[in-house]
Amino acid sequence: MLGTVKVKKIAAIHDLSGVGRVSLMVVIPILSTMGFEVCPLPTAVLSNHTQYPTFSFLDLTDEMERIISAWKTLNAQFDTIYSGYLGSPRQVHIVKDFIDDFRQKDTLVVVDPVLGDNGKLYTKMDDEMVREMRTLVAKADVVTPNLTELFYLLDKPYQAKCTDEQLKQYLKELAESGPEIVIVTGVPVIDNPKMTSVYAYSRFNDQYWKVTCSYLPAHYPGTGDAYTSVVTGSLMQGDSLPIALDRASQFILQGIRATFGYQYDSRDGILLERVLPNLNLPMQSCSYELI
Ligand code: PXL
Global pTM? Predict the structure, then answer.
């Protein structure tokens, strides 16, 4: 109606790490640039992310309960609920209750099951967190594990080299635990170290997608957070799943390319500030495949 305004709102349940461009410091700028109101429900405040050798960590579990109860009093409503790094099993329970209490008919629930990378769990993550994360994944519409997290969630040994057929089976297996869409990032391309792929499965129409793009040999923390944020924003803008996958892959590659040529501490993450404006440019080409 004329004179009314609707900016879609996202409840973003992630930590705030001061240094290192991960979690809320990636989620907020990306989704704000894409035109959404981001409402942070912070899980913890850290001096920096946990891939640096030391960090301070203020757990906000009790405060999360107070924030949620204040939001209930306000009758706050969200178009999307998006969770990422969680600091403890109790926080997983809080997020599950939050989903139960705030989900409406059209709410999009995105869970990025942040647990580990390169075949290993992050510092502070353990088997109990993996077990709890499985129960949160079951409640989501969209989940975005990397390859390491996929294997932890499925309770299978990590396998860096997978065929398309194996991956399709693993994606379906995770989707059968609850989520409508499973997206697995950071899958190496067999016999081509210069490429990396993202695979996705949509249970709704039983379709599998693959997007392959260049891989540069560097590891930047926070790229998983950036990937899921772009996918979330793209789906909220009304894009199809393969377009959302493609936009996110291209954005991450642009970020890595903007960073890679410098002498630079890769733990500081990609130079996000340089590429944020690209999020509002039209897509020039796509590379997704139906597999
Ligand atoms: O990007 C994932 C992430 C988020 N939050 C914290 C982390 C990490 C990865 O290391 O340490 C605190």
Answer: 0.97
